[in-house]
Amino acid sequence: MSDSERPEGSPSGSDERKSRKRPVTPPRAVPIPGAAESSSLPPWVAGGSPAKFVSHDELMKMTNELENMELVHEIAIDPNFQIPDVPANALQRCVRETMHRAYYNQLRRDLAKDPPELEFCFGFLMELKAMILDDILTAQHTRLKGEINTMLDEPKLREKLAENTLDVMEVMKYIIDLCSRLCSPVRDDKVAELRTKDDLIDLFQYVNIC
Question: Where is this region: Disordered (predicted)?
Answer without folding.
Answer: 1-43
